[in-house]
Amino acid sequence: MSSKHLLIGLLSLCLLGTVSADTHTAAHTIHVVDDHGRSVRLAQPAQRIISLAPNITENLFAIGAGALIVGTVSFSDYPPEAEELARVGAYNQLDLEAIVASQPDLVIAWSSGNPRPQIETLERLGLTVYYTEPRRFEDIATTLHRFGQLSGHTTQAAAAIAQFEARYRALQAKYAHRPRVRLFYQVWEQPLMTINREHLIQQAIETCGGVNVFADLERLIPRISHEAVIAQNPDALVGGGMGEDNPAWMQAWRQWPHLQAVAQGHLFFIPPSLLQRHTTRILDGTALLCEQLEQVRQAANSHPP
User: Fold this and answer.
1) Would you say residue 280 lies in a domain?
2) CATH of the domain at 251
3) Do 192 and 143 fall into the same domain?
4) For the chain, what is the HEC assignment?
5) Which domain holds residue 218?
6) In degrees rounded to 5, what are phi and psi of residue 28?
7) Single residue among 161, 191, 212 that ends a domain in this structure
8) Are residues 234 and 189 in the same domain?
9) Are residues 150 and 184 in the same domain?
10) Residue where a domain terminates, one of 136, 161, 186
C-alpha cells in the first residue's frame, strides 16, 4: 500500500474516533488549555499518548503516565524505561505515518522544537494535539498538572509538583541572594550559541545568584561571536550541549588565557539533560550550577583584588 493510501485510510480511522468521542456528554469531557492558549478536549483520560520531545517523555514518567506512551522521539532516554519505547522520528523530523499508525488519542508537541508544518498536518488528520513550551520553573509545575489531567494521573502529578516546588524554594533561599557571579552559558560550540533572559535556563542562573551576560539579546537562543564573549569577560564559562559526558569543548576556551574565567580555571560543564530539558530534573542541573558559582565566590574571597 502506498504512503498516500495509508495516510488516507488512517485518516478515516482518526475521523471516526473523533465522531465517537463527540458523542460523550460534556460532563465527562477533560478540558485543558495548552501553552498556545488553545483548548484541548478529551472525552476521557488519554490511553495512547505520542510524546514528541525527550522532556515530554520524562515529564509523563514523572507523574506515573509513562506506560501510556505508545511512541516518542530519539534522545528520549530518561528514565531507563523510556529507551524501550517505539520511536516516531526525531524531534525535528517526525515520522507522520508511524505517529498516525499508533492511533494515539493525544499527541503532545514541543512548540519551539517540533516542525510546525508536520504538527499541523497531524491536526488536519484529526489527531488531538497539546502544545507545551515551559519558559519558567513555574511552567514546569503547570505542565505536570495539565499532563496529570490529560492522562488521569492527577494525584501523582500533585505529589511531583509538591516535591519540585519545595526543592526550588530551598535552592532559592540558599543561593539567590549570594554575591553576583557574571557568567556565559554556552548552548552550542559551532556555531557559538547562548540563551537570553526568556529561556528557562535564565531562571536557573538567577536562582544561583548568577548574571547572564547575554540576557538582553533579542533571540531566545542567539548566535554570538567569541569576540563578544571576550568583550564581556565573564567570571565563569558554563557549557551544556548534546553530549552527556563530553565537557571537552569548554577546554577550547583555554586559547584565551586572559579571560577572567579561564585565568581562574572557572570552566564548568553541566550534562545537558539536567539543565537544557524542561523537566523536574532541571533542579539537579540548577543545584550543580549553584555549587559551581559558589566555587567562583570562594576563589574571589581567597584572592581579593
Assistant:
1) yes
2) 3.40.50.1980
3) no
4) CCHHHHHHHHHHHHHHHHHHHHCCCHHHCEEEECCCCCEEEECCCCCCEEECCHHHHHHHHHCCCHHHEEEECCCCCCCHHHHHCCECEECCEECHHHHHHCCCCEEEEECCCCCHHHHHHHHHCCCCEEEECCCCHHHHHHHHHHHHHHHCCHHHHHHHHHHHHHHHHHHHHHHCCCCCEEEEEECECCCCECCCCCCHHHHHHHHCCEEECCCCCCCCCCECCHHHHHHHCCCEEEECCCCCCCHHHHHHHHHCCCCHHHHCCCEEECCHHHHCCCCCCHHHHHHHHHHHHHHHHHHHHHCCC
5) 177-302
6) -100, 0
7) 161
8) yes
9) no
10) 161
Q: Phi/psi at 70 (nearest 5 deg)? A: -105, 0
* Structural domains counted in the chain: 2
Tracing cell 494525584 back to the chain, one arrives at 155
d(CA 83, CA 81): 5
C-alpha cell at 273: 539533560
Of 51, 94, 54, the residue nearest 78 (C-alpha): 54
Residues 90 and 135 placed together within one structural domain of the fold: yes
Residue indicated by cell numbers 533571540: 219
Cα 299 from Cα 177, distance rounded (Å): 18
291, 240: one domain: yes
pLDDT tens track of the chain, all 305 residues?
A: 444 343 434 333 333 333 333 323 334 689 999 999 999 999 999 999 999 999 999 999 999 999 999 999 999 999 999 999 999 999 999 999 999 999 999 999 999 889 999 999 999 999 999 999 998 999 999 999 999 999 999 999 999 999 999 999 999 999 999 999 999 999 988 899 999 999 999 999 999 999 999 999 999 999 999 999 999 999 999 988 655 556 667 778 999 999 999 999 999 999 989 998 999 999 999 999 999 999 999 998 876 65
